[in-house]
Amino acid sequence: MSNRSLRSLPASTLLLAAIACAPAIGTLSTATHADSTLIRRDIEFLASDRLEGRLAGTPGNDSAAAYLARRYRSLGLTELVPGYLQPFDALSAQDAHAGRTAPRPTQNVVALLRGRDPALRQEYVVIGAHFDHLGRSPTFALDPEAGDAIRNGADDNASGTAAVVDLARMLVANPPRRSVIFVNFSAEELGVLGSSWFVNHPPVPLDRIALMINFDMVGRLRNDKLIVYGTSTATELKGILDSANAAAGNAALHVAGSGDGYGPSDQSSFYAKDIPVLHFFTDLHDDYHRATDDADKINAGGEARVVDLALRVARSVADRPSRLTFVRIAPPARTAVSEEGKQTYLGTIPDMGASETKGLRLTGVRAGSPADLGGLKTGDVIVELGGAAVKDLYSYSDALYSHKPGDVVKIVVMRGSERVELTVTLGRRGG
To answer: 3-state DSSP call for residue 209?
Structure first.
């Protein structure tokens, strides 16, 4: 049956069909802490080959949505939209450029937990994550040589999806004063289309949303290091986050906070509507957007610690008497990039949490990449690329993509206290 034919069926029929293929939920834990076993189980189902990578507009994506709707129904959450499903047609810029005019029918999954305070329950904290991934498409993949291999996206973003579900489980047991909306977005990989649809067709007034908390890639905690973006989008957020982390005592994480609410994930759609945001992230890794991002590499225990921290943050905001004080930050200036420039490949893995570093610190270098062959190493801080100063990720990207594959460039790095000049021949993505 074609996907368009599937979308012509009632949502309830699709839900029942997908539920028949999903694993049994069983008795849900009532623990007041995140449950790493439940987190791992949700990730293993969502990132299984049977869902074929959950690309928006595919049966696997529909099955994932139905599974999530079932999870929320089992928790007794309220249907804020019929059947917990918010359908929309996704048409990305990439599809349009490729000549695809037919949209991809897909859906967000939305559920409501009513707050316990009669006055404050008309305000909301949104807790969200995207559940789609790349499927078999090499379009946005970093391993196009793998062709139509299934890219399961265990960390990106079955991990974030599982975090939202486990937070729903814990908050149901003891609802906060404000209401909480749990939403899993589709078509994020096509350009944050699901969250854009949500904020442009909101089931509640946007001016009643006190905070949006986003999870994108939270399943690879390493060295207790967590990155949280958006800490300057409200004046109170940094203090709330620091207090919530300190409450863990010896189990506290090493949190690197970063200010603005922009970036390539769903929190940006909310920040654009003047809503404070936080985005939890355990950093990039070699399996990002590759067919090797599988469930066996997930650190479920580490993710549970991230979820526990997020729970304390969510409760603090949902229970506080007054609203957060929103702060508007100007978006970073960007340089236009040519189509050829977009194909330029170096092979570095930036340390996304090194926001205080002057330059771009590398948390990894891909084996056999131009960066590796040119002598770049993990821990290097790039301060210059092709004659352009590198101050952060944005200026690094602008400098890199101003060149084309095959260009020979000088890259200057700080290796400890030593300034090292390297010569690198840039490659082509998938080349």
So the answer is: strand
Backbone dihedral angles phi then psi of residue 225, each to the nearest 5 degrees: -95, 125
Residue 330 to residue 78: CA distance in whole angstroms: 37
Superfamily classification of domain 341-428: PDZ domain (2.30.42.10)
DSSP H or E segment with residue 170: helix 160-173
Q: What architecture (CATH level 2) is domain 3-319?
A: 3-Layer(aba) Sandwich (3.40)
The token pair at 382 is 């790039």
Residue 238, sorted as left (phi over 0), alpha (psi -120 to 50) or beta, turns out to be: alpha
Which regions of the chain carry the CATH code 2.30.42.10? 341-428
Burial 359-381 (b: 16+ CB within 10 A, else e): bbbbbbbeeebbbbebbbeeebb
Q: Rounded to whole angstroms, how far apart are CA atoms 258 and 352?
A: 10
Strands (DSSP E) contained in 216-258 are 225-229, 254-258
Q: What residue ranges of the chain are covered by domains with CATH 3.40.630.10?
A: 3-319
Instruction: Say how far apart CA 37 and CA 33 lie, in whole Å.
Output: 12
| Residue 353 near residue 225, CB atoms below 8 Å | yes
Strand duo 85-90 + 104-113: pairing: antiparallel
- How does pLDDT run along the chain (431 residues), one tens digit per residue? 223 333 333 333 333 344 344 444 433 444 589 999 999 999 999 999 999 999 999 999 999 999 999 999 999 999 999 999 999 999 888 787 778 889 999 999 999 999 999 999 999 999 999 999 999 999 889 898 899 999 999 999 999 999 999 999 999 999 999 999 999 999 999 999 999 999 999 999 999 999 999 999 999 999 999 999 999 999 999 999 999 999 999 999 999 988 889 888 999 999 999 999 999 999 999 999 999 999 999 999 999 999 999 999 999 999 999 999 999 988 776 666 566 667 888 989 888 766 667 899 898 888 889 999 999 998 999 999 999 999 888 789 889 989 999 999 999 999 999 999 999 999 987 66
For tokens 């977005």, the residue is: 185
DSSP H or E stretch at residue 172: helix 160-173
Please state, in angstroms and rounded to a whole number, the distance separating the CA atoms of residues 234 and 325. Answer: 5
